[in-house]
Amino acid sequence: GLLDQVVWLLSTDLLAAQVPSISGSLSTSTGGVFNYALADLRVSSITVLRDKVAVMCGEDGHLVIKATEIRAKVCGFTWLYKQRGAPHLKDAGAADADIGGLSIWLAMPLARFHALVRRQRQRQAPA
Known about the structure:
elongated; six-stranded antiparallel β-sheet
């Protein structure tokens, strides 16, 4: 049914999502500044629990989806930080992360949802 299609689409589409690199600077209370960056952020697995997804169809033809308690794994991303100023701390490496408690709330025309399902099924079809 519709709920199963929503769970499937969330699970497959979120795995295909491009996650941009994150970088910036952070000032500390002692007057220091740290530069930081996270890169190569790729979701390697995602868990969307069927009983944590609510789907509502509005009279206006819109589908409203609310999913909670989503879990994801991001494996092999790179990180670094570097302090400007004394004592010049710096480090870099690779890491894995388990992320929990994610929520998504989406609204879209029902026709758009069906088009997304078709597109994702075509992407996954064997060549």
